[in-house]
Amino acid sequence: LSDNNGKSHALNLSLNNPAFFVSQPSTLEVAAGDRLRINSDIYQTNLKQHDNVTIEKIGWLGLSLKDDNGKGHIVSLSQFKNTALSYGYATTLNQATSGKETTLVDMQSYTASKEVLYDLMQQESKTLHIFTNDQQKLEAQMGKSSIQPSTMARVLASTGDISKFINSQTQQSLYHDVAVAVQSLLHQQADKPLIEQAVTFALNHVSEQKAGFKHADLVMEAIRFAMDEKGTTVLEPEIKAHLHQLKAQDSVLSADYQDGTRWTTREALETEQRILNHLAAGKGAVNAFATPQQADTYLAQQAWMTDGQKDGVRLIATTNDQYTIVQGFAGVGKSTMLEQGTLLIEQAQAIQKNTPITVLGLAPTHAAVNELKEKGIPAQTTQSLLKEVMTGDTLPEKYANTLFLLDESSMASNAQFDAFTTLVNNSGAKATFLGDIYQLQSKEAGKPFELAYRTKNIETVVMKDIKRQQTPELLSAVKQVINRHPESSLAAVKAQSPLDSQHYHQPSTHTDTVISTYINTGRPSEDHQQAKDKLYDLAAKEYLSRTPESRDNTLMIAYSNRERDLLAKLIRRGLKAMGDLPSGSDTSVTRLRGVGATKEELKTMMPYQKGLIINTGRETYLQIDKVDRQHALLNVTDLDSGKVTTFIPAKHDHKMTTLWSSSQQPLTEGDKITWRKTDHELALQGNTELTVSKVNTQTMTVTGKDGQAVTLPVSDMKSSHWDYRYTKTADMAQGATVNNVISVISANAKLTNIRRAYIDISRASQHAMIFTDNEKSLMNSWLNHHDNNTSAIETINKTHNPNERHFNTTDLPNENPKYQQDGHFKLSLYAKDLGNQLTPYTESLAISLLGQPNNSKSDKDYLAFGRGQSQTKISLTGEYRGYFRDWTTGDKGNMINLIMASKSISFREAITLAETMLTHPEQHDLIKNEKHTMLLTTLPVQVSELKERAINYFEQGVEIKDTPASTYINNNTYHDIERHAALRYHDNVYSSETKYTHPALLTSLTNNKGDIEAVEITYLTPQGDIANLNTQKRLMGNKSGHAMVLNEGTLPNISVIAIGVENGIALMGANQHDVDIIAVNNPHDLRTVNTQTLREHIIIMASDSQLSNQALINDITHKLTEQGHSISLVAEALNGLLPQDIGIIISDKVNDDITQLKEEHHTQTNAIDQLAKDISNPSLSDNKDITLSQPEIDINDLSYGQSISNKNVTHTLERYEQSQHSHDTEKDNERVIEKELGDFSI
């Protein structure tokens, strides 16, 4: 079989395959008025198999249908694809609808029978007309068979008294027929299994909002559905198993990330691919509006325009592509650019005597639409255009000579982009997308503007010349926040001068421009609450202290509606006290606010509450009187007619359904409000600014900026779509320009993130003030909350988009929390990261510093410099790519250390030079190696050979039963283990110390897939004692990040890491709670061990001597907690005890800790709380250590197993041993560097 993407699949018909059917593709010609029969469910609609519909309208993108119950449906052409349809003028007998006035039957005579006649009679039509090819044959055929209805049908169809009593045989037949009927009905009506319902809800709900999403998001939503909708629960393993079933069916896809699995849907992926195909199809597909010469001539006369504005005009006017992109930051003058571009195109078309083109502006919000109109560009919302085309109200041919200007494109969803690009491609129009990938993204799934921008397959202009901000401090703040440097941005806001006194009618109490209400008195909980209480009062007082003119030019931003209501209350009270609003009593007026619910949620009972208002998309407003969850229905009252009826959420497709909360809010003459929903009948557009000129219990009169007054009946729900405009959310403020901004930010709120910080600061042209309840917490939120959605394509490809540096601003490294330890900036961490950033430039940087390499000594794993013994080697492959060693001086380390050594400069000077190199690599002849990522995962030849040899040793080994290895384990752990997948015994393992072989216990270190990466060798005597060698244990292979898996337990939230395989095996023998157990070779391996598969809480099991270094303990704890784990250390002081006693005592302590943790866990709210924590604390990657904690395997260890006298192998591996790094020496060197840096500060 071949799927829609041309991918081949094999289907074995002898296996138990999922149900499928075979169909013949064909084209069905339809027209308005046609009757259609739906022969299979249509995905994402309420149209089911056997439904009959009539076509009302045909649009370019879809059809408007009405079913036999009078209910309307809008279905896109893409939804009809691969759907079984037929004309609805005739049907088969078994699918015919009964109860019609007249039935017409087309029947060949040979098909007639008494059974057919009986079935026709059951249609209960008053008139039956039969059309046949031979009436006589038909009549004869009907007499050849007898009617044999079921027993139940005989009894139910009887018109008179039953002539016989029911005997036992008839009774059995009745029971049988009733049972069959009931089972059939149950099969038709039976709910899907709970886990299927829960996962389906989770996928549909989350995928409405995001194209790529975390596994934890799906688990939380599936559990919420089970608990809130069904009153029960589902378990994470069930959810995971069902998701993998769906993945096997190719309806969902996933990719593994460091913080867990991420998912997307096949539909989302295909939508994004289709969008990119639409964009690609537009390359070179149309004629340019103007020639390059015409554009240059026109722009030469517009000297006042910025370079970015000119580039945008030139691109739009002269391109031969259907699509272009303008990525423009806030305040660069995109609207002005569009105005000038339109004028140029009109002039060029007039000169060429072409048919004038139509320019139509589009935007997702009414605010952006209004701004386009102010520039003289006809505009409407994108949603309204697509609806007109889909319903057939507007034909696509209308736009054949149109230039679409889609503003704020970064807020458009996948669905909108898909429908819009389909319209553009099929109509032959042109489109320019304008947006900013750093401002707010779509609230629905996808980020197609950014996806298109980053593919770099479409002609693009980046407008960077910011003109809005009129002070250098404010301009710097905006540039810093675009560069994602929030601390520098906040510092620039603080650097502003106070607002001039002319803006105040009474002296301001604030001279600072960033005001934090938090005062630390040593009582954190009380301090935080007092800070919140003060926050809104202080912000309101600042606003009220300004003159009316200044207030009119001041935008106050608050992120949540709760905060907006609180501020509006304080401001209205202040305005009344100052006489700016009448002091008399207010009139209570109904206000409606949208309740955020997805279409999938609206199909359930979860979002509905008594008192909420349902709007079905027409003029109907239904108030919920009662929520009947048991029967899944709502008792509602039509607020227009007063009629009481029922509303069944599951029976609606909710394409037009909205849910509103209703409240009574005070209004008086002079109140400033915003109209929130477009109403053509009232001639009011969404986001229109109004002032209340008159209000009473019957009517409300509002006046716009143009002086036009509209009187609204307050009892009509249509008059309730208003809100106070004393404040706006960041979402409402996007696209606005004002002189002054007051931003009121709750530091730890969910909505506080860097994108909204950008909106806040960039709205102001003259001055910005920030009020917060905790400046430090605010900075943490800005640093860590990015609110970055991922596309489906990015999710599957695991694409990471690093921050682009758009402006040459002064950067502060101490802004980044990864350079902090215990809350303080640590220069060595910053230096280590700089070294990592330089690693992609390893080859060119080494040559820049050291000259040309010695080609005779270099290979694919190392660059060698110098001659003879005076040699420096740079590692090119593996985890130590970019590290060097100078065999003459003994210098070694990463690229920072190489800069120090080669330039003979200090550590801090090397850091400064490294910063310069990374900022301007071309000035230092640095070239990034495109194969860098691949080289990092490429093992050096020597390590690869060691790994291969280690695997050979392990595979040659035998089970440990009745071997010196089992004796050793029993003597050291009191655990008599006979076999284990990670343990082997080998008679002859080579040791470079004795130049001979010894018996050995072999323990495998595996990766997440279970593949062996390295082997730990424990040398033994034939009697099972530890061998008398200086190095009793060795590691062979690639150990970094890998561990010895000893037990995969069932305890859901605890894992144990044992230091030393002996400690781990000791715990296996006393594993009362069946906990996960892995072992590492030594404490330093905890820095690099992969913790993705480990549980939330980790117990580290060791003796006191193994974890005696407090700095190491701090480092390990910091690393694991950064990855979202909580840590317990079980390190006992057990001097003088036998090894086996040590293992048992530590195991007992571990079991005690597990028991305590289990008891604590039962007091928590289990899965949902934990999932929420996982989301808010994603796993972070950790830098790898160059240092090795164990002596490296000797050169001869590779091949001695077969032949001790292999001198060639010995010579080769001696070079490898020299190329490795000693752990202890490296640790000493690090401590010296730390000490050297102790006096430095930034």
Write the layout of secondary structure elements.
Blueprint: E1 35-38, E2 52-58, E3 62-67, E4 72-76, H1 77-80, E5 85-87, E6 102-106, H2 114-121, E7 127-131, H3 135-142, H4 151-157, H5 168-189, H6 194-209, E8 213-214, H7 215-230, H8 236-248, E9 252-257, E10 260-265, H9 266-281, H10 292-300, H11 307-318, E11 323-328, H12 334-351, E12 358-363, H13 366-374, E13 379-381, H14 382-391, E14 402-406, H15 414-427, E15 430-435, H16 448-455, E16 460-463, H17 472-482, H18 486-494, E17 514-516, H19 524-544, H20 548-552, E18 554-558, H21 561-578, E19 587-594, H22 599-602, E20 613-615, E21 621-628, E22 633-638, E23 644-647, E24 658-667, E25 672-675, E26 688-695, E27 699-704, E28 709-713, E29 722-724, H23 730-733, E30 738-745, H24 754-762, E31 764-772, H25 775-784, H26 792-797, E32 820-821, E33 824-825, H27 827-838, H28 842-850, E34 862-867, E35 870-875, E36 884-886, E37 892-893, H29 895-903, H30 907-919, H31 932-936, H32 941-956, H33 964-973, E38 983-991, E39 996-1006, E40 1012-1019, E41 1033-1037, E42 1044-1047, E43 1054-1059, H34 1061-1068, E44 1076-1080, E45 1097-1103, H35 1110-1122, ...
Parallel strand pairs: 6-7, 11-15, 11-16, 12-13, 12-14, 14-15, 17-31, 18-30, 30-31, 43-44, 43-45, 45-46
Antiparallel strand pairs: 1-2, 1-5, 2-3, 3-4, 8-10, 9-10, 19-24, 20-21, 20-24, 21-22, 22-23, 25-26, 25-29, 26-27, 27-28, 32-33, 34-35, 35-36, 36-37, 38-39, 39-40, 40-41, 42-44
Helix pairs in contact: 6-7, 6-8, 7-37, 9-15, 10-11, 11-12, 14-15, 17-18, 17-24, 19-21, 27-30, 28-29, 29-30, 33-36, 34-36
GO molecular function, one term: helicase activity
Domain DUF7146: 946-1045
Protein name: Conjugative transfer relaxase/helicase TraI
